[in-house]
Amino acid sequence: MHIPDGYLSPETCAVLAAGSAPALYVAVRRLRQESDGAILARLALASAFGFVVQMLNVPVPDGTSAHAVGAALAAILLGPWGAMLAMTVTLAIQALFFGDGGILALGANVFNLGILAPAVAYFVYQVVAGRSPSRTRLLMAAALAGYLSINAAALATAIELGLQPLLFRAPDGTPLYNPYPLNLAVPAMMFAHLVVAGPVEALVTGLIVGYVHRVQPDLLARPAEGKWAAGAWLPLVVVLGLLIVLTPLGLLAPGTAFGEWAPEELEGLIGYVPRGLAVLSGWWSGLLPDYAVPILEGVPGGEVIGYLLSALMGVLLAVLVWGILRWLLLRPRTRS
Amino acid sequence: MGDPAVASPSASDPVLTLPPWLGRPSAPLGPGTSEARRVRLDFVARTLVGALEVVRRALYAEEIARRDGLLQRASPEVKVLCFLALILAASLSRGLAPLALLYGGCVLLAALGRLDLRSFLGRTGLVVLFFTGLIVLPGMTSLVHPGEPLVVLVRFGPDARLGPLALPSELSLTRQGLTGGLMVMLRAATSVSLVTLLTVTTGWFELLRGLRALGLPAAVGMLFTLTYRYIFVLLTVVQDMYAAWQARVLGGRAGDAGRRLGAAAAYALFLRSEALAREIHQAMLARGFQGRVAFVQRRRSSVWASGALAALTLLMLGGVYVVR
Fold first, then answer.
1. Neighboring chain A residues of B187 at a CB cutoff of 8 Å
2. Domain residue spans in chain B?
3. A 197-236 residues with CB below 8 A of B?
């Protein structure tokens, strides 16, 4: 999933690098507080472990062997901040010394695999494991953390790649970077990760966490301490999940909801289009206009999938915005 | 008295002869032989091969970095700056001509770095062009980017359908798609070539010095140094672990037994990394480490080589500006 140079515009790389910087800054500060001066040695060895664990192959059920990306494993063994820094250093070393992944694209790779994947993994692991998990629940939490973290990173990668032809085109329409728009990049990337890479990551993460839990459970991140306890999050997750699943019910309603008319519908209703609406209605069109995925047009059930995907994206965006606001407004300020 | 080892066997002694199959020389198992290709590597062998590949690449880079070429003699600070400027130029180039010029410049730089040109062109040029080409090929067609058709590939005719999907009347290679695809291919090949040239002609220590000159904090440089060093220590741990396991255990590699071994290896590796971190910290304390890091110069760089590289870079950037 390492994006090489050439597929993303330098502008995208710069924005993603800037987006990664606050998380890395917080991670360094947190670790400096926790590690009692030994941060350099711990981080270096954690990063070396992150590099080498990506090479450990494990037999998978189809008769071949596979290895994990290791973001979830790092988050469970090192905690979220340690995992973010270790993955970032690993990605930097892969790009700088081994030529794996682009140098300009390093910001994007760090954002996807170094920040997003460990954050998703740790959150999922904490929420699913709960306060005092049974072994089965702990393994499920680890496997789900592996599955969802790699898929979150894949989705972010696909969105970054898919935005290129929308944002960077020559005047004659020639795509300047990755040529595939969102409606192709997202399904292509997600199919491979939902069906193949995700289950592999889940299996390998679950196996290793299961082994560690049996022989030395104190090595694993303490599940659900305080605010991330499953008790607090589970009802919200269940309700949101239900609401997402129920969104296609909107398809049963005839006509357009009151006040949501398109300019042409409004013209049919009142005979003209107000000038302000005519000017402003065209300036923004959503990523999924009318909750439809263009590639699924004409496919049976395509409308339902479009509604589900739109709901999922909406919830993720809302959670992201909420998280950023919360961090900005409520972060503890230390006085020197 | 005769040497018993060369004494001819008498008629009463039993004659020891090798069975013919044991005397036959075994087929070589190097890469590329049909025998090697038939062997399906199990997970232990794949891990060992992967670990060896990392070591091999690092050794290859060290060997190239020791050669006496212009790129090796240039100062790491100038080299890092020049290569970053060229990578940025490749990324910002939005036409085929500047990208072709930059790729030509890469080949010239490879020759100046005393690299084997055939292998360089094969590994960073053809391989990247081929794989990127495979990825962007569908993107060159009217299916993804409608535009001026250059070549009609398939005519489906009006109202053609594939199951529930409506097909376009024809599938063609478009000018916009082809230009965009070729641009991505050339840009990828140029970027990979530049990164390869920088990493193989610069020892990792020199590379860190170059990055320090660009503002990389000393602590981060030290972190990279330690990580890089201990990657190889941990790789040795993995090699020892798996080689010992291969030598002692017959069968039992497939399925659950193999998965248990993989999990145990990861656990052992984690424990080893934690223990090493403690040892390194203690060693740093014992030697009075106070957080100050200095990167010593290992190789004397030449002013004329640095100047020549900077001039060549400026020439390439100027060329890109002219043909953009």
1. 5-6
2. 42-247+260-323
3. 204, 207-208, 210-212, 215-216, 219
Residue A183 domain boundaries: 10-228
Under an 8 A CB cutoff, do A52 and B92 touch? Answer: no
Tens-digit pLDDT profile for residues A163-175: 888 888 888 888 8
Contact A77/B at CB under 8 A: yes
A141-145, A157-161, B41-45: the lowest-pLDDT one: B41-45
Please indicate, yes or no, whether residues A253 and A218 belong to a single structural domain of this protein.
no
In which residue are the tokens 């990389």 written? Answer: B216
Tally of domains in chain A: 2
Q: Is B269 exposed, middle or buried (0-12, 13-18, 19+ CB in 10 A)?
A: buried
Same domain, A207 and A114: yes
For an interface test with A, give the residue of B225, B227, B256, B290 to mutate (most A CBs within 10 A).
B227
> How far off is chain B from A219, nearest CA to CA, in Å?
9
List, for residues B146-187, the tens digit of each pLDDT value.
778 888 887 777 777 777 777 777 788 888 888 888 999 999
Residue where a domain terminates, one of A171, A195, A228: A228
pLDDT for residue B253: 63
* pLDDT of res. A119: 92
Question: Do residues A196 and A263 both lie within one domain?
Answer: no
Say whether both A57 and A146 belong to one domain. Answer: yes
A183: closest CA of chain B, how far (Å): 10
A2 in a domain, yes or no?
Answer: no
Span A234-255, mean pLDDT? 71
Buried b (16+ CB within 10 A) or exposed e, B96-125: eebbebbbebbbebbebbebeeeebbeebb
Higher-pLDDT residue of B300 and B21 is B300
Out of A55, A102, A173, whose CB is closest to B47?
A55
Predicted local confidence at residue B39, as pLDDT: 46
A298 and A152 assigned to the same domain: no
| Amino acid A169: pLDDT | 83
Residue A201 CA to residue A147 CA, distance in Å, equals: 6
How near does any CA of chain B get to the CA of A142, in Å?
13
Q: Is residue A242 part of a domain?
A: no
Whether A82 maps to a domain, the answer reads: yes
Name the pLDDT band for B307 (thresholds 50, 70, 90). very high
Q: Does A53 touch chain B (CB under 8 A)?
A: yes
A89 CB near a chain B CB, below 8 Å? yes
Q: Of A193, A228, A263, which residue constitutes the final position of a domain? A: A228
- Are residue A254 and residue A185 in the same domain, yes or no? no
Is residue A150 in some structural domain?
Answer: yes
A184 to chain B, any CB pair closer than 8 A? The answer is yes
Residues A81-97: tens digit of each pLDDT: 888 988 999 999 888 88
For residue B236, give the chain A residue with the closest CA.
A52
pLDDT at B3: 45
Q: Can you tell me the ipTM of this complex?
A: 0.78
Pair (A262, A207) in one structural domain: no
Residues of A in contact with B260 (CB under 8 A): 207, 211
